[in-house]
Amino acid sequence: MRLFGRLGAVLLAGCIVLVAPAIPASAQQSNALRVCTPGDYPPYSIAEDAGEYRGVDIELARGFADLLRRPIQFVPVTWATLKTDFAERQCDIAVGGISDQPARRAFADFSIVYGTDGKTPITRRASGADYSTIEQINRPEVRVIANRGGTNEEFARKNFPDAQLTLWPENLTIFDEVEQGRADVFVTDAVEGRYRVRQHQGLQVLHPDKPFDSFGKVLLIRKDDPVLSTLLNGYLTTQLATGTVDRLFDQWIGPNTTVPVG
To answer: What is the C-alpha to C-alpha distance for residues 164 and 254, in angstroms, rounded to an integer?
Structure first.
């Protein structure tokens, strides 16, 4: 994932060195770092059997917990209830492919942007390029599907008012609906699309290098905790400067396949 300039990243990385000695006593205790995640958005976060999680954001969260010398506890939440879950479930941070959406600043602080992504169509291979543009999708006969409660639903409602919209309760089986022909198109993050089509041979991701829009990916932080924010941002800056974020994405979707910042 090609992010901001390496020189700037290296200079910012120094903040973690300066902050580390100031870790408060509470961060040294055995209380778990509560990491909330929907767990349905690979390659960022995916829930597996027995409550295990994998993904780029999951590895970043584990590394941050190690830095704080705190055990980690993953807490399931949903996109539709993220606003209320974040406070009620006492999230320290939230991860899982979270977009920099202004409405989310009302209930959480944001980390620095660690990557960018954009919305792009997922369709059956047999459909060819029939749903490449917003105009092609926004027609009464087109069956659009979107997972409920996140930016995919917001994008669909805004851009496809004339299409037939089905809201799906989660983001795991939604691709089966498209592959089996029960929906025509799902517009989602390009990075997720690239990952998913590797598991669904009947699907294709259209123009992932030229998505419909562009937005930053962030981690959410509990509000009004400047120490936690400074530590997390310093940690993320280091992961960017050392190429760790790039390597994590390469492991999931292959090298040079993520949307650059710019």
So the answer is: 34
Q: Report whether the peptide linkage leading into residue 260 is cis, meaning its omega lies within 30 degrees of zero.
A: no
pLDDT digits (tens, 9 = 90+) for 123-154: 999 999 999 999 999 999 999 999 998 899 99
| Pair of tokens at residue 214 | 């562009």
Determine the Cα–Cα distance for residues 230 and 102; give it in Å rounded to an integer: 20
- Residue 112 has, within 13 A of its CA and on its CB side, a CA count of 18
CA-CA distance, 17 to 112, in Å (whole number)?
A: 17
User: Quick one: average pLDDT of 168-187?
Assistant: 94
pTM of the shown model: 0.79
Contacts of 144 (CB under 8 A, 6+ apart): 137, 156, 160, 163, 164, 165, 166, 183, 184, 185, 186, 187
